[in-house]
Amino acid sequence: MKQALGLLLMVACAHSVPQDAATGRDGREKGAVPIKLENGEGIARGIVTYPGGDRVDWRSIELPAGKAGTLDLEMTFSTPRPGLKVAFDVFDQYNQPIGIQRAAAKRSRSAKIDHATGLYRVRVFAPRRGDAGAYKLVATFAEDPAPLPTGPISVADPPKLPAVPAAVEECLAFDAHNSDCNDKCPDDAPPGWRGCQHTCRTPDANNPACVHTMACVVGQADRRVDACMANIKKFWPPCNQSAPDPANPRCDVLDPVSARIISIETAGDEVTITIAAGSNQRVEKGWKVTLLQGNSELPLVGGTATVLRVEKTKAIAKLRLKREIVEANQNLRLTPP
Questions:
Q1: CATH for 2-143, among 3.40.50.10770, 2.60.120.380, 1.10.3720.10, 1.10.10.60?
Q2: What is the pLDDT of residues 171-186, one digit of tens each?
Q3: Rg (CA), the chain
Q4: What's the count of helices (H) and strands (E) in the chain, helices before strands?
Q5: The pTM is what?
Q6: Three-state SS sequence of 164-220
Q7: How far apart are CA 217 and CA 317, in angstroms?
Q8: pLDDT tens, 75-115?
C-alpha cells in the first residue's frame, strides 16, 4: 500500500518522466498478466501512472477451450485528485480492438463481448499526461447455452497492435494544435478564438456572454446589461416626456407630472378643479389625480380623482371634498393609469 501511495503521489511532482520509465514486464503485450477465471469470474488490481513512468498494464483472459459465451469486463478506479482518469481497451486473439462502452458513472468503464471465445488481452492505461489511478478490473464469463461447432481454423498472422493513444496536454497556454484548447479560453488566446465565444474577456454589451456579468457605467448605460436594468433611476436620467428617448427605460412608463390647481368651482358636494398641465405634458384622459398635503409629497386623504377632459395646457377633474380643503392643498401629482 505504501508503494501504491508513492506511485500516485508522483502525479503531483513529475512532469517529464517517460511514460514507460518505471514500467514492469506487464507494460508490454507479451508480458500480459493472466486473469484466472474461477467459477466464471476473475479479478485484477493494479496502478497506472503517466507521471510515474508506469502508464500501461497488460492483462490477458484465456476462456475455456472450445467454449463460447458472454465476457463482461467492468473496471472501477480511484485517483489521487479529482479530474484524473484511467481507461482500458480490449483486443481479441487476432489483435483486433473490441469496442468499449462509456459507463454512466464517472469512475468506471465497461465492455461486453458477445459470443466471446479464445484469448483476450486488456490494456489498462492512463490516457493523459497527468493521469494516474488505482484500478480494479473484474472479468465475468457466462457460457452460451448452445456450444459453437468446433473444427480446424486457419488463423492468419495477427496485425500489429495499434499504438497507445497519444497524451492530451491540458490547455494552460494557448496552442491552436492542442485539442484541449478547442473549448478553452486561456488568457493568451487570440481574439475570435472559438473557445472564447462564450467567455467575457473584455466588457462589451455586444457580447452575450458579458451582459450578465459586466458592470454598468453612468453615462454609458445599455438596456442589454443586467446591472444597468437592475437600477434604472441610478443609471438613466429622467425621461424628457416631450421627446421620449426609446433607449431610456425610464420612458417605458411615463413619470408622474407635478402640477397645481389654477381654478376651483363648486357644484353641490363636488368640486371641479382645473389643473395647470395638459397634453403638452403628455397628460391624457383617465390619468389619476392625487392631491398632496400642503407643500409635501404626502397624499391627501380622500384627495384622488380621474382626469375627465384634457386640453393642451390644462386638464379637468372632479373631487368630493370641501372647497376650503382643496383651497388649502393645491399641489397635486398626475400619474398614468
A1: 2.60.120.380
A2: 878 888 888 888 888 8
A3: 40
A4: 4, 15
A5: 0.45
A6: CCCCCCCCCCCCCCCHHHCCCCCCCCCCCCHHHCCCCCCCCCCCCCCCCCCCCCCCC
A7: 42
A8: 999 999 998 999 999 999 888 998 765 554 567 889 999 99
